[in-house]
Amino acid sequence: MGHYAISDLEKLSGIKAHTIRIWEQRYGLLRPVRTATNIRTYCDDDLRRLLNVATLCGRGYRISKIAQLSEKEIAQAVISCNDDVNDYCQQVHSLLAAMLAMDEVQLNCLLNRAIRRLGFEAAIIHVVYPFLQRIGVMWQAGSVNPAHEHLVTHLLRQKMMAATDALSPVPPASAKRWVLFLPEGEMHELALLFMNYALRARGHHVLYLGQNLPIAGLYSVCKSYQPYAVCTVLTAVPERERLQGFVEELRTLCPDALVVLSGPLVQSEALQLPPHTVRLRLITEFLALADEMNVQVAEPA
């Protein structure tokens, strides 16, 4: 069971800590326990309830009215709010609540609904990425365990692979060519899988090499495949003291390709980028790069 500070609830729900305290004192919406040092801590049930309350408040319910509802009535009211396709915040709250309950059926239903109504790419950008960012906050609070992460990762991986498999094949001879990979020891694949989908959906050809790849083999790959770009996402590896050397080695192994770097590790200001290497901070920057290359391909010679 998770243990949250009030600041964690504020980040996850978007409700100010001052407001949470008022709701707690005036309406008894949450039931925190106090530590030996008299600090409030909240559990998963408190977070789920607050997420549901935030959803209803966002849809115009008065807090005084919500406080009079039973847990069952609150849940039913939240379900009735699911019809607004553009209410991304509510969809994220619902996903978080389903994850905390380890409700795989509800998670799958919510993801499918978002994809069906928004389209795959828009659902990932507007719903899934904010959802994953909230999970990151919960990791920092120590309130998400590996089972939560594995449940979400497994479902999203399924969705991304199914969506990619449904795309029409792209002939490599007539397209920009990309190599996508994660280095040895790197297992955080979701961002790379989405990049794979986005590139293929835009008519690029992708050689997808996946997780945990020793980069020494990239030299022969680039020599035979001759990619326009080589892309990787660095989340957990390499170690920070090895990052500069890794990037320089990658540049050497792929001498004729644009090297595209993404992920938390490459955001370090100390990292010096070699020539013909770009660093992307947001997934929307990657999509913009792919779109720009598409325009270049479409232009007459």
TrEMBL record:
Q: Keyword set for this entry?
A: DNA-binding, Repressor, Transcription, Transcription regulation
Q: Which residues form the B12-binding domain?
A: 175-300
One GO term in the molecular function aspect is: DNA-binding transcription factor activity
Keyword Repressor assigned to the entry: answer is yes
Q: Which residues form the HTH merR-type domain?
A: 3-72
InterPro entries from the UniProt entry: Cbl-bd_cap, Cobalamin-bd, Cobalamin-bd_sf, DNA-bd_dom_put_sf, MerR-type_HTH_dom, MerR_fam, Meth_synthase_dom
Q: What is this protein called?
A: MerR family transcriptional regulator
The organism encoding this protein is Hymenobacter sediminicola
